[in-house]
Amino acid sequence: MNSPMRVLEIDLDAVAANLATMRSRSGGAKVMGVVKADAYGHGLIEVARRLEAESVDFLGVADIAEALELRAAGIGTSILAWLHAPHETFESAISAEIDLGVATTAQLEAIASAAAELGKTARVHLKVDTGLSRNGAHLRDWPELVADAHELAVLGRIQVVALFSHLSSTSTEDDLAQIERFNQAVDVARAAGLHFEIRHMMASDGALKYAQAHFEMIRIGLALYGLSPFTDRKAEEFGLVPAMTAKSFVVQVKRAEAGEGVSYGYLHRTVESTNLALVPVGYAEGLPRAASGKAYVQVAGQTHLIQSRVAMDQFVIDVGQQSVEIGDEVVLFGDPSKGQISVDDLAAAADTINYEIVTRMGGRFVREFFGSATPGGAHELPEPGVAF
Ligand SMILES: *Cc1c(COP(=O)(O)O)cnc(C)c1O
After folding, report:
1. Which residue, 136, 188, 133, is CA-closest to 165?
2. Which of 3, 34, 102, 380 could make an S-S bridge to 60, C-beta 3.0–4.6 Å?
């Protein structure tokens, strides 16, 4: 088999190191490793296996389907799933011992009846909306949800493992107001006689910003992948190491004359006789079309603007008089401490955030994993280069 022409290198040791870094900052709170959306584009199963090997306390996903995929791969760590389909019955989730985020009494009833049917006790985390206006019970509906949960807990249908909420990250003032509302919601639940061991509210940004609000667990996604949740602070400042490097290779080199139009719409025209290098990565791979004319990449170690239009499968770099050969490495982004372009640079060029860049990397990229799925193991997983 030919070696792949588009590679996402995933450094599992970096993920493990970032987990250790966040643990050292958690003040003793448990850590949930958030692996939703294919571990933010890094590979759900491989990342989850490594986090499990590092004894992460919980894994977090949005959909039950993602949690079931983890169980099917043999992951035994506690998993929380919090975003449910309209007519979810919860049976497969409860059978697979998946913790369920609950936002409404209707969900709670469905979970309780599925649990009764299965003769099991469902593990739930009640979610209160403290001001994001996304999922979670409105504060107005919270007392009813809590009262229902108490009743069902007494009947043994459910066990309330945790109460949780999520910040809007709008401003410090807004965040602190949400934390205050969360504390009040916790009081309401306690007053209703509810027993639970865990409160969790902070994602990466809150965990790094509000040490006073770690409660018993923090839910960490982005920071595990070595990226900063803040646009004005670099990951390096927190000791986080980027886990993804996006690479490709020059597949054609062409000498062009002055005045030739390059790629769709002639966003770029050559100004002199020059070398054009063709790179087989397009918006199908998650390289934003919006990055055309704005983002930089490195071709054989030299930094160049992507002057022309990014197409579905490919883009062209005018490398000037740099002599470039077929097979030369092209780095789209990686670890800035190694002199590579950062995900943040690409995100800024495409007018988006680092979360979106890594999560959407895919298409015909092939992932290659470095570092082992288990600590102290071999350097590569048994099946490197798993396509997706
Ligand atoms: C995605 C998500 C997280 C993780 O957020 P990061 O900013 O990536 O750490 C935590 N909690 C909830 C509810 C989420 O949706």
Report:
1. 136
2. 34
| CA 316 / ligand 1 centre spacing (Å) | 36
- Rounded Cα–Cα distance for residues 141 and 132 (Å): 15
∠ at Cα 195 (193, 197), nearest 5°? 150
User: Do 388 and 360 form a contact (C-beta atoms < 8 A)?
Assistant: no
Instruction: Give the Cα separation of 373 and 377 in Å (integer).
Output: 7
Q: What is the pLDDT of residue 377?
A: 45
Q: Going from the N-terminus, what domains does the chain have, and what CATH number goes with each?
A: 12-225 (3.20.20.10), 244-387 (2.40.37.10)
Other CB atoms within a 10 A radius of the CB of residue 384 amount to 12
- List pLDDT tens digits, range 62-109: 999 999 999 999 999 999 999 999 999 999 999 999 999 999 999 999
Q: How many residues does the chain have?
A: 388
Q: How is residue 119 written in tokens?
A: 């003769």
DSSP states of 185-227 as a string? HHHHHHHTT---SEEE---HHHHHH-GGG-TTEEEESGGGGT-
pTM above 0.90, yes or no: yes
State the Cα–Cα distance between residues 228 and 218, nearest whole angstrom: 16
Q: Where is 137: in which H helix or E strand?
A: strand 137-138
CA–CA–CA angle 344, 374, 82 (5° rounding): 60
Integer Cα distance of 174 and 170 in angstroms:
6
294 is catalytic: no
Sign of the dihedral through C-alpha 323, 325, 329, 331: positive
What is the CA(246)–ligand 1 centre distance, in A?
Answer: 23
Residue 372: per-residue pLDDT: 75
Backbone angles phi, psi at 380, to 5 degrees: -130, 155
Residue 34 exposed, middle or buried by CB count within 10 Å (0-12, 13-18, 19+): buried
Residue with tokens 């209160």, as numbered in its chain: 128
List, chain by chain if needed, residues with CB within 6 Å of any ligand 1 atom.
34, 36, 166, 203-205, 219-222, 229
**Coil vs helix vs strand at 51:** helix
Is position 264 annotated as part of the catalytic site? yes
